[in-house]
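Sorry to interrupt, but I need a hand with the structure work. Could you write out one complete protein record for me, on any chain you like? Just paste the record in under my message, thanks.

. . .
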Amino acid sequence: MLESQGYGLSEDRRFCKSVLGLRSIVDFICNEFIHGGHLLALGASAVALSIMILLDTVIRWEFLIISYLCTLAIYGYDHYRDVERDITGNIDRVNHIRRYYKVYPLILSSYIILFFSLLFYFGNLNSLIFGVLLLLIGLFYTIKVKKLTTKITGFKSIYTSLSVASFVIFTGLYCYHSINLLLILLFVFMFLRFLVNTSFCDIKDIESDRRYNILTLPVVLGKERFMFILHIINIISLIPLIAGIYLNILPLFAMPLVFSIIYGGYYIEKARRVNNVNIESLSSIVADGEFVFWPFILFLGMIFI
C-alpha cells in the first residue's frame, strides 16, 4: 500500500512538472511574440498585404515573409543594443531578451541572411535596392542616428515613422514595379498612423528617456499636453484616407480603415483617463497590434461596401 501511495505521489510530481514545463514554454512563446518584435513584424506583413489588396495586384506571399524578416531584424537589433537602457521602461522585454542574450546576434544574423536571400531570389532590381536601403536605414538608426534624439525634439518618432511608412513604397516597388499617387497617399496615411503609435509608445519610456536626455514628445511636452496633441495627429491622419477615397484614388472599400483612427483614440484616451493603467501592455499589445487588423478590415469592406 505504501509503495502504491509512493508511486501515486511520484506520478503526481511528474504530472506537476510536466504542467509547469508546458506553462513555461507557453509563457516563453507569448513573451517572444510580444517582446521579441514578432507582433510588430506581423503588423508590417499585414500592412504589405493591405497595400497589395488596395493595389488590386497578385498577393505575393513571399513578400509578407520578407517584410516580416526586415522588421524583426531592425527592431531586434535595436532591442539588443538597448537592453541595459530599457531596464526602467521595458523590464519585461529586458528580462525576456536576457534569457537568450548570448545567442541573440546569431538569431539576428539568420533574420538578415534569410531576408536578403528571399529578396534577391524573388524581387526585382528596384525592390532589391530599396529593400537593402530600408534595412540599412533601420539598423543605422540604432548605430549612429539615435544620437540626434538628444538634440532634435520628436526625432525618434519621426524617423521611425518615416522608416515604417517606407514599407508602402517597398511593397509598391516589389509588386507594382513603380510608385503612383495611391502609394503616396498611403505613405502619408501610414506615416501619420505610425507617428501616433510610436509617439504613444514613448510614454512608457519617459523616465529612462529623461535620464538619457532623449527629447521625445512626452518628455518635452509633458503627458497631458502630449495626449492632446496626439489626439489631433490621430484625427489628421484621416485626411489622406478621405481625400484618396473622395478623389477616386483609393477604392471605396478602404473606408473601414477609419477604424484605425477610432482604435487609436481608444488607447490614447484609456492611457489619459485610467489611473494605474498598464502602459507597457497598452503599448506593446494594444497599440502595436493596430496594423494586424488592416487586411481583415479591408476584406470586410470588400464584402459589405
Residues 26-304 form one domain. The chain has a mean pLDDT of 87. The CA atoms of residues 78 and 142 lie 6 Å apart. The chain has one domain: 26-304.
